[in-house]
């Protein structure tokens, strides 16, 4: 072995080196989180280029997300500089598009083909359904798309699909739609997203010359996150690597989290059967996390039956305990997270970019976003849209703005045909023209339509319907809460029923987001002194302002657990650790889904390097419904001796709190129908007000004061900001405590 080359990898452990230097033949790197799988892949590319007589363009490396591909490219460029040019690093889709651009003519498409996104796809599908005279209500387009997409993931052609469902009336209609839809795509010289993979496989299978070309070109093929490949992707990889057989698959069966999208965990589990001569490398040392975090992750995943046993250890012995916080509600949960982050950043211990907040569903981000904004903490949402950027949220806000201010042409234009009322762009153009002429708002023009000759009678009646609705909402506004008004708008305009009729995952998400928006209005009504629509809208524009955030700033990363795959952060918060949220309600009833949720939890835990928090709320208004949360079973699956409850301090005061609670004023009780005993440092003020009187007064505490905390013991005050004091405890480190909630005594 060339010693200079070996020196390049001296920072790697023996197994990693072995994986890097096993260049030829099938190689499976099956290893747990943070064991350096992606690191090995990057170094392996370097090794192959340094030791084999090949070109960079002979290497193909595929990852799962654009973000992961970008990061891998950067890491390879760091190692190889200009020599990295020409290596194919990308996602399945980006690599396939490249190949199709070259040869798709062989399938009868032009090379200038377009890619249809979801919206284009829907339009085409609706045309298809119409042409077949099929009732759209029975064959809701998005539901049909999901069936087609599912078939494509499994490489099932329309003809094969027809064979499978020949005796099923409903499905046979979908087969007809699939066939015509596919024909129409071709007429439009278009591919949908799934086609990108399917057509590449088709190209390879029907045109051996093309396959032969790429098989020879890609002498080394590598796939990261192999556990999440679906059947079509698996086939593609098998075909591409069949000639040289230099396929390196990297993955972790414990992190397979896309079963619901057709990913097939058996692709990784059966690798050794498929390639009998495969070298299998297991990496067992984790370099990312402390042993507390790693042991916790291992402890949780052990509850899954269907897995390959793996050992994973770390040299980073010990570490901070996993911190569990039970909040009163989602607002308090958000505040807790935001304040923890802010405190550590203010103390210069961490910067914003050290933190990630992970959650199960996008709808949970709102309360966290708002709390971060209240604390002025910059954040960025990955792999999803910011709550207030979502279409359905923008739509409902546009309605509210118009109801509040009929002069708002922008909002009116946004929703005049949402949901669809048959008011076309031409009519709207005309209205706008007239409004410009008259120097009046479009809404005023609408009010004077009666004798207008510039719109048809048919349009007139539709426009009249619209202003009747808006007029009614304006009257309701005077007598209703904002939250009730929102419900009325969603109901009376048919917005919700349209979404319900779609009955797809996507429409379901939209409904959930709208419910979440209602939650935000209820919350507003509870805490704001002025409760009118105008104040509500003002409070929202404050929130929506975050868009103006400076891009160079360091920010906290917010994302779903799914998008966090492959990434790492110093400190991770997993929020919403409640039964019904994580695991989801659906998963609770289905063992297979439950195991997938548990793997998702394993992914979440193993993103953390040093600190992990799990938070849950006693009560949460989510999707417009109030839920009383029980902590997630995944919290209970953590080893008890590695966790620490941040609520314990308050629990010591249980009796005291209980008696205080009895004294509580009835209205407060309603607002904060909470278990006072479980309140932590950042709990709602009113409930424990009396307790603070029993302890020391705010003014008694100053820098250098010696105090005793019921749980943390003796300490010295090192800084003070209003009622927040930071205390260096003799045995428990430095903590920030709010004097309004926690009883301290002077030593
Ligand atoms: P995941 O399963 O989450 O995708 P992974 O197995 O791909 O994780 P990497 O992301 O490659 O793991 O590595 C995790 C961390 O460990 C990274 O910060 C990486 O730089 C570091 N690391 C990997 N190998 C070593 C090593 N031999 N010595 C020191 N640090 C290492
Ligand atoms: Mg990785």
UniProtKB/TrEMBL annotation:
Residue ranges crossing the lipid bilayer per the database entry: none
EC number(s) from the headed UniProt entry: 5.6.2.4
Domain UvrD-like helicase C-terminal: 291-566
Alphabetized InterPro entries for the sequence: ATP-dep_DNA_helicase_PcrA (IPR005751), DExx_box_DNA_helicase_dom_sf (IPR013986), DNA_helicase_UvrD-like_C (IPR014017), DNA_helicase_UvrD/REP (IPR000212), DUF3553 (IPR021938), P-loop_NTPase (IPR027417), UvrD-like_ATP-bd (IPR014016)
Keyword ATP-binding: yes
UniProt-listed Gene3D superfamilies: 1.10.10.160, P-loop containing nucleotide triphosphate hydrolases, PCRA, domain 4
Keyword annotations from UniProtKB, A to Z: ATP-binding, DNA-binding, Helicase, Hydrolase, Isomerase, Nucleotide-binding
Origin superkingdom: Bacteria
Protein name: ATP-dependent DNA helicase
UvrD-like helicase ATP-binding domain location: 10-290
Leader sequence segment: none
Family of the protein in this entry: Belongs to the helicase family. UvrD subfamily.
UniProt record, GO biological process: DNA replication; recombinational repair; response to radiation
Pfam families: DUF3553, UvrD-helicase, UvrD_C
């Amino acid at each position: 072995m060339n010693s200079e080359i070996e020196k390049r990898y001296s920072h790697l452990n023996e197994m990693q080196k072995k994986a890097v230097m096993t260049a030829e033949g099938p190689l499976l790197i099956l290893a747990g989180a943070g064991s350096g799988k992606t690191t090995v892949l990057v170094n392996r590319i370097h090794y192959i280029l340094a030791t084999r007589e090949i070109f960079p363009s002979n290497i193909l490396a595929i990852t799962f997300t654009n973000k992961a591909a970008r990061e891998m490219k950067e890491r390879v460029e760091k190692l190889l500089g200009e020599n990295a040019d020409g290596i194919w690093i990308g996602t399945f889709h980006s690599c396939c598009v490249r190949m199709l651009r070259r040869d798709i003519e062989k399938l009868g498409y032009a090379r200038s083909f377009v890619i249809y996104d979801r919206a284009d796809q829907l339009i085409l599908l609706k045309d298809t359904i119409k042409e077949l005279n099929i009732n759209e209500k029975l064959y809701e387009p998005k539901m049909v798309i999901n069936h087609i997409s599912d078939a494509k993931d499994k490489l099932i052609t329309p003809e094969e699909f027809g064979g499978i469902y020949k005796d099923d009336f409903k499905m046979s209609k979908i087969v007809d739609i699939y066939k015509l839809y596919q024909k129409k795509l071709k007429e439009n010289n278009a591919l949908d997203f799934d086609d990108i993979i399917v057509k590449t496989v088709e190209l390879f299978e029907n045109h051996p010359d093309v396959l032969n070309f790429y098989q020879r070109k890609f002498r080394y093929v590598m796939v990261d996150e192999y556990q999440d490949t679906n059947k079509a992707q698996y086939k593609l990889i098998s075909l591409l690597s069949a000639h040289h057989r230099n396929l390196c698959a990297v993955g972790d069966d414990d992190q397979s989290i896309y079963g619901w999208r057709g990913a097939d965990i058996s692709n990784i589990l059966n690798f050794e059967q498929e390639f009998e001569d495969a070298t299998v490398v297991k990496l067992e040392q984790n370099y990312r996390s402390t042993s507390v975090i790693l042991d916790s992750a291992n402890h949780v995943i052990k509850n899954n039956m269907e897995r390959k046993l793996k050992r994973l250890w770390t040299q980073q012995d010990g570490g901070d305990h996993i911190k569990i916080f039970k909040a009163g509600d989602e607002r308090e949960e958000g505040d807790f997270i935001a304040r923890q982050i802010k405190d550590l950043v203010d103390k210069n211990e961490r910067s914003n970019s050290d933190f990630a907040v992970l959650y199960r569903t996008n709808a949970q981000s709102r309360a966290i976003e708002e709390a971060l904004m209240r604390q002025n903490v910059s954040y960025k949402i990955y792999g999803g849209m910011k709550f207030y950027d979502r279409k359905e949220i923008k739509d409902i806000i546009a309605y509210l703005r118009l109801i509040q201010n009929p002069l708002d042409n922008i909002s009116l234009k946004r929703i005049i045909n949402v949901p669809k009322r048959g008011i076309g762009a031409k009519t709207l153009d005309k209205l706008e023209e007239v409004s410009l002429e008259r120097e009046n708002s479009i809404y005023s023009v609408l009010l004077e339509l009666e004798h207008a000759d510039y719109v048809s009678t048919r349009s007139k009646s539709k426009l009249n319907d619209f202003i009747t609705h808006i007029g009614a909402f304006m009257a309701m506004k005077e007598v209703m809460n904002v939250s009730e008004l929102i419900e009325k708008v969603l109901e009376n305009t048919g917005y919700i029923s349209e979404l319900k009729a779609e009955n797809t995952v996507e429409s379901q998400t939209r409904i959930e987001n709208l419910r979440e928006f209602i939650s935000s209005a209820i919350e507003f009504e509870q805490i704001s002194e002025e409760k009118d629509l105008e104040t509500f809208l003002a409070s929202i524009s404050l929130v929506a302002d975050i868009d103006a955030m400076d891009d160079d700033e360091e920010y906290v990363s917010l994302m779903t657990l799914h998008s966090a795959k492959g990434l790492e952060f110093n400190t991770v918060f997993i929020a919403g650790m409640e039964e019904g949220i994580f695991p989801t309600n659906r998963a609770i009833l289905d063992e297979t889904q439950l195991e997938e949720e548990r793997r998702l939890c394993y992914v979440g835990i193993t993103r953390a390097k040093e600190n992990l928090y799990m938070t849950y709320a006693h009560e949460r208004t989510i999707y417009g419904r109030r839920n009383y949360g029980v902590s997630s079973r995944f919290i209970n699956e953590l080893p008890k001796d590695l966790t620490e409850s941040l609520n314990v301090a308050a629990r010591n005061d249980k009796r005291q709190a209980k008696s205080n609670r009895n004294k509580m004023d009835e209205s407060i009780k309603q607002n904060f129908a909470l278990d006072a005993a479980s309140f932590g440092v950042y709990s709602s003020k009113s409930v424990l007000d009396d307790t603070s009187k029993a302890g020391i007064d705010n003014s008694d505490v100053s820098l250098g004061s010696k105090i005793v905390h019921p749980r943390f013991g003796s300490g010295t005050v090192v800084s003070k900001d209003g009622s927040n004091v930071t205390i260096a405890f003799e045995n428990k480190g430095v903590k920030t405590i709010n004097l309004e909630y926690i009883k301290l005594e002077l030593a």
